[in-house]
Amino acid sequence: MVQILIGYMGSGKSTVGKIMAKEQSLPFIDFDNYIEDKEGLSIPELFKTKGEIYFRKKEAAYLVELLSEETNAIISLGGGTPCFGNNINVILEATKNVFYLKLSVDKLVERLQKEKVQRPLIKDIANEALSEFIRKHLFERNFYYLQAHHIIAVGNESPSEIANKIMEKSA
Ligand code: S3P
Questions:
Q1: CA atoms within 13 A on the CB side of 145
Q2: Range of the domain at 62
Q3: DSSP per residue, 57-90
Q4: Which residue owns the Cα nearest ligand 1 atom 11?
Q5: S-S: 98 plus which of 32, 68, 105, 148, CB 3.0-4.6 Å?
Q6: How many domains is the chain built from?
Q7: Which residues contact 28 (CB under 8 A, 6 or more apart)?
């Protein structure tokens, strides 16, 4: 059964997913990279040249494709993946192991301030406005994120500690 990590940008989905995959000798798939490979463009390039609507359509189609192919892997999804179209249902139907990495707004701001340029949705938001943006965005997205089977509260633990916490809960 696939194990899926969801959560806001900067929540550590890929870092934690890689550790989980290594520990369990399973393949790791970063869904953003999967889309980039399929489209032959990076995520920032896709947003810039084709726009967000195109990206969301492709994201939904590739999600169905990936989850129908994979039976045993650790998958980290994009921050927005569960929050568009029917994606959350597609995800919940694929597995009983969906984990939401839940970080506080302050922690997300701290991490994302340093990594804004790579992220089309926040790259143009001034640092002073980032906290307010993330607070509102997370409030909207929590409706989807909180449908995960397991909510993993992330504080100051290391990625390995988080990976272990998740693997203890894995069904
Ligand atoms: C997005 C998150 C990104 C990427 C795209 C849109 C979002 O993934 O899919 O930039 O809507 O939150 P990460 O969460 O891996 O950064």
A1: 24
A2: 2-170
A3: HHHHHHHHHHHHH-SS-EEE--TTGGGSTTHHHH
A4: 80
A5: 148
A6: 1
A7: 17, 18, 20, 21, 22, 73, 74, 75, 76
Per residue in 116-133, pLDDT tens? 988 999 999 999 999 999
For helices 105-114 and 127-145, angle between their N-to-C axes, nearest 10 degrees = 120
pLDDT in tens, 91-121: 999 999 999 999 999 999 999 998 898 899 9
Ligand 1: which of 43, 48, 125 to mutate, judged by most atoms within 8 Å of the beta carbon?
43
Which CATH number characterizes residue 107's domain?
A: 3.40.50.300
Record the pTM.
0.97
CB 29 within 8 A of CB 70: yes
Q: Tell me how far the alpha carbon of residue 81 lies from the centroid of ligand 1, in angstroms.
A: 8
Ligand 1, atom 4: closest residue by C-alpha: 78
